[in-house]
Each structure stands twice: as C-alpha cells, then as structure tokens.
C-alpha cells in the first residue's frame, strides 16, 4: 500500500523517457509555433522539471488559451464527481505537442469541398456523408482445385 502522496508519487514509469528517446531534447520541440485555439496533447517530459504538469494531465488533450515566450496556457476538462470542470494549466512547451485528432476531419472537409465543387459544375447531386461499409457483394466460389472437405469430430479414445 503506498504511503507517499507527493506531487510526483507513483510516476516512476509515467514520466520515464521512452526507449532510445533519452538525452538532449530535439530543437524542433522549441521551433514549433503555438497559437491561441490550437488543440494540443499534454505529455510530460521527465527530463525537464520546470513547467511540468501534474500527473493527472499527462495524456490529456486541451485547447491553448494563452501563449508566452516559453510556455502556454491550456484549458483541460476535468471530470470531478458527476460534472466537468474547465481547468486552466500553464505548461512549458517541452511537455506539449500538436494534437492529430482533427487531421482526419480537416482532410474530410477539403475532400468534401472539392467533391461539392465538382458536383456543382456537373449539375448532379452528391452525398457528402460518411457511409458505413456495406456487406460483401454476392459472388461464386470456384471449386476447381479447391475441393470441399467434410470436417467431422474424431471420437475420443483413451490413450493409456
């Protein structure tokens, strides 16, 4: 039973650097541009102790509401009891990265805009909604070189 309840209690593996990711931090981490409204993922970097988020926010996604020279303010929704509370967390940029959660949506928006423009030029209607994958079409299976095999259970025999 744990007896320590500090800020970093039980984070031995949580804040550990990944395999072959140890050492100095890449400069690309500092070259990224963050703007208000960007969606970011919070992933604490154990090598940088300054501006590290609390372990609760590790792995959470939030929206940037404030930008300073070396850190950003992030709004994260936290489940407390039966409601969500909007928490504002100030985190250094080493502990965040741009989220990829909207990439598929933005790709779909561009594809839909192109399809809508093409359909308007041709004068036809076009369905922009995503459709579930339907059942496989009916087809014949050839038995040439693929003879059916009858499978039957083998009776149990005591080997002793």
- Taken from the alpha-carbon principal axes, the silhouette is flat
Across the major sheet, the strand order is 4-3-2-1-5
What Rg do the Cα atoms give?
27 Å
Mean pLDDT: 93
Kindly state the percentage of residues in helix. Answer: 10-25%
Tell me the strand percentage band: 15-25%
Tell me the span between the first and last alpha carbons.
50 Å
Tell me the major beta sheet: 5 strands, antiparallel
**SSE string, helices as H and strands as E:** HEEEEEH
Low-pLDDT stretches: none
The total beta strand count reads 5
Structural class: alpha+beta
Annotation field: number of helices:
2
Short description:
The protein is of the alpha+beta class and 160 residues long. It contains two helices and five strands.
Walk me through this protein's architecture.
With 160 residues, the protein is α+β, with helices and mostly antiparallel strands. The protein is built from two helices and five strands. The protein has a five-stranded antiparallel β-sheet with strand order 4-3-2-1-5, with no helix packed on it. The longest helix has 20 residues, at 103-122. The two termini are 50 Å apart.
Sum up the structure in keywords:
5-stranded antiparallel β-sheet, single chain, 2 helices, alpha+beta, 160 residues, 5 strands
């Amino acid at each position: 039973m744990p007896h320590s309840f500090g800020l970093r209690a039980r984070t031995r593996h949580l804040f550990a650097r990944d395999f072959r990711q140890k050492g100095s931090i890449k400069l690309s981490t500092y070259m990224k541009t963050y703007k208000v409204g960007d969606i970011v993922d919070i992933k604490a970097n154990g090598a940088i102790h300054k501006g590290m988020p609390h372990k609760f926010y590790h792995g959470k996604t939030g929206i940037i509401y404030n930008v300073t020279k070396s850190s950003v303010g992030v709004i994260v929704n936290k489940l407390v009891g039966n409601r969500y509370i909007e928490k504002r967390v100030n985190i250094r940029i080493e502990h965040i990265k741009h989220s990829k959660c909207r990439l598929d949506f933005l790709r779909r928006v561009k594809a839909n805009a192109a399809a809508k423009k093409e359909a308007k030029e041709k004068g036809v209607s076009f369905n922009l909604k995503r459709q579930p994958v339907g059942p496989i079409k009916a087809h014949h299976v050839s038995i040439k070189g693929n003879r059916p095999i009858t499978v039957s259970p083998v009776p149990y025999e005591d080997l002793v």
